[in-house]
Design a protein that fits this description.
InterPro entries: Leu-rich_rpt, Leu-rich_rpt_typical-subtyp, LRR_dom_sf, PGIP. It is found in: Cell envelope. Pfam families: LRR_1 (PF00560), LRR_8 (PF13855). Keywords: Leucine-rich repeat, Repeat, Signal. By secondary structure, this protein is an alpha/beta fold. It has helices spanning about 1-25, 35-45, 50-55, 170, 340-345, 390-395, 410-415, 420-425, 440, 445-470, and strands at about 70-80, 80-95, 125-130, 140, 155-165, 180-190, 205, 210-215, 230, 235-240, 250-255, 260, 275-280, 285, 300-305, 325, 335, 350, 355-360, 375, 380-385, 400, 405-410, 430. It has a domain at about 285-430: Alpha-Beta Horseshoe (Leucine-rich repeat, LRR (right-handed beta-alpha superhelix)). It has ten helices and 24 strands. The strands form two sheets. It has a 19-stranded mixed beta sheet that branches.
């Protein structure tokens, strides 16, 4: 009897537990209350004018505002003495600030702030995104973000937040899974911490338009998966390390508008996948246009303007038939423009050679570039006849820039046509070429010159006939 009662008690506990398991398993998982409360508080700091709690009173994961994304996970769950795998739900993406009508994220206000809960309450967060949220009120990034923040983070994106200030060392945490670090148009300052080299999964680092300074950290060389590196429009200086040439997966490298000096690293020639290279407006010195560019057959755009590289434009264009844009403005270049540029760069859309010391004629080959939409040759010492037809100038319009070359001339029919722009009208007109003895080439001579040539031709024919008669005899 005792055994029977013990068995019945055991059966009750067992079946009750089993029933509870099936009931829990069949229910839709809901966001736990502390995490939901954290979402409300973060939304309030971004835009306190919207009644988030009344608009989304129930489980926020079942009906969330755009920009708040949840996902399901299978995790160990304990019910009494039994542990089993159960489905749970957590916040995985938080995006704030309208990007477009198709992405109506929770809108920010001029007084938006950065809630500390972002760095403590969402351990499953994969993406954190702010666009034009911190524009008036100064907002500081925490100096000591908890080490637990970012263990699941894959994308950290802050765009156009000029009032968001702080050091990179404060916000870069334990991002073992981070793929995209995009902090552009903000107020970040200081140097790039060496710990960025620990983020070995990074595929994009965009830190443009901040107030960062110092040199390029050698730790970047450890980021073997990196495809985009953009440090433009900051206050970086010093020599660019040769070690960046180890980033062989790079597709884009932008170091423009900084204070880098010295020589452009020869190791960049190893970046055989590189499509976009912008080193313009730095202080790279008198070492000439790098010859290794001719080996980079994947290049689509290369910009070196605003550096004092000097020297001549080298003959490196044979393998660069896919290039779309070249910016060599204000570099102190001398010599002539190679005709091989027009011969090989058939896909060229933009060419900037202005504000140099180039001389000689504009290559005839430039006049047949079918894809070009802008050519700027202003303020050089070019001379001779402009090779562009009326059809070409009509297509390019005002983006054909030639002024500042006093010895260039243009045909009158091109200069006075409707398609001519102000830059073309400022050029002097070419004189009609003198062609001596034109009759010998085109037969368009006057009657006198034509008749004077006939006796000569007749005597030449008779002499030739006489030779044949002598030989026949």
């Amino acid at each position: 009897m005792a055994f029977s009662s013990r068995f019945s008690a055991f059966s009750f506990v067992f079946f009750t537990t089993l029933l509870s398991f099936f009931v829990i398993s069949s229910q839709q998982p809901v966001l736990d209350l502390p995490e939901q409360e954290s979402v409300y508080q973060v939304l309030d700091t971004v835009n306190p004018t919207i009644p988030w709690r009344s608009l989304f009173p129930d489980d926020i994961c079942s009906s969330a505002p755009h920009g708040v994304v949840c996902d399901y996970f299978i995790e160990p769950t304990t019910n009494g003495t039994v542990t089993f795998q159960a489905e749970t739900v957590h916040i995985t993406e938080l995006s704030f600030g309208n990007v477009s009508d198709s992405s109506p994220n929770p809108p920010c206000t001029p007084n938006s702030t950065l809630s500390p809960l972002l760095f403590t309450s969402f351990k499953y967060l994969r993406k954190l995104f702010f666009y034009k949220c911190f524009t008036v009120t100064r907002v500081s990034v925490p100096e000591n973000v908890p080490a637990s923040f970012g263990s699941s983070l894959e994308e950290l994106v802050f765009i156009e937040n000029p009032s968001l200030v702080g050091s990179l060392g404060g916000i870069i945490g334990n991002f073992t899974n981070l793929r995209r670090l995009v902090l552009t148009g903000n107020g970040f300052y200081g140097t790039i911490p060496d710990k960025v080299g620990r983020l070995v999964g990074l595929e994009e680092v965009t830190l443009s338009r901040n107030k960062l300074s110092g040199g390029v950290s050698l730790s970047f060389a450890k980021l073997k998966k990196l495809k985009i590196l953009d440090l433009s429009q900051n206050y970086f200086d010093g020599n660019v390390p040769e070690e960046l040439g180890n980033l062989t997966q790079l597709l884009k490298l932008d170091l423009s508008n900084n204070g880098f000096y010295g020589k452009i690293p020869e190791s960049f020639g190893f970046l055989q996948s590189l499509e976009f290279l912008d080193l313009s407006f730095n202080r790279f010195g008198s070492f000439g246009v790098p010859l290794f560019l001719g080996q980079m057959s994947s290049l689509r755009e290369v910009y070196l303007s605003g550096n004092s590289l000097k020297g001549q434009i080298p003959e490196i264009w044979e393998n660069l038939g896919s290039v779309l844009g070249i910016g060599f403005s204000g570099m102190g270049l001398v010599g002539t423009i190679p005709s091989s540029m027009g011969l090989h760069l058939k896909k060229l859309c933009y060419l900037g050679l202005d504000n140099n010391n180039l001389e000689g004629s504009v290559p005839e080959e430039f006049g047949v570039l079918e894809s070009v939409s802008e050519i700027n040759l202003e303020n050089n010492n070019l001379s001779g006849r402009v090779p562009f037809s009326a059809k070409f100038t009509s297509k390019v319009g005002g983006k054909l820039k030639l002024k500042g070359n006093p010895d260039l001339c243009i045909d009158e029919r091109v200069s006075t046509g409707k398609q001519a722009n102000d830059s073309l009208r400022q050029l002097k007109l070419c004189r009609a070429p003198d062609i001596p003895n034109a009759v010998l080439f085109n037969g368009a001579s006057s009657s006198s010159s034509s008749s004077s040539s006939r006796p000569f031709l007749s005597s030449l024919v008779l002499s030739f006939v006489g030779v044949l008669i002598v030989l026949a005899g």
